[in-house]
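Entry for the shared binder. Reason: the reviewer on the internal report wants the predicted structure included alongside the sequence.
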Amino acid sequence: MNIRFTALPTDEVRALQRGEPDAYGLVPERHVSDGDGVPCRHCLKNVAAGEEYLIVAYRPFPALQPYAETGPIFLHARECERAGESDELPEILNSRDYIVRGYSADDRIVYGSGAVVPTPEVRERAATLLSRPDIAYVHMRSARNNCYQLRIDRG
């Protein structure tokens, strides 16, 4: 099974970079990176020390519903190029493990699909989940803070 890591859509990110409200209706917070642990979910690279970044509430689902988790993410404050879709682990994925969880076509968690997975095993776990007919896509989240990282789709 081929997979692809998918960054946030550029149109959504540009709106936030222009100061439009986030998923909670708030203006994005602006901060300056110390260069440690500030992964941009659009370019899938870390925000370098001294660069401005945004903290926003993000909901990676098309509509409100009980499983539509919302949480904090980081983005470059400046426009950055969206990461290309690839089966290679993006630069930002440097923690020892992540939550990997499958969702159905109606954007609901597929129970029993979620697990904390060591980073070197993420690709294999995602491919296994995506080989199931009841799973439409996979999310990766921080294993410590549950922050959304990216989406994984069939390749």
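Summary line for the report: The two ends are 7 Å apart (CA to CA).
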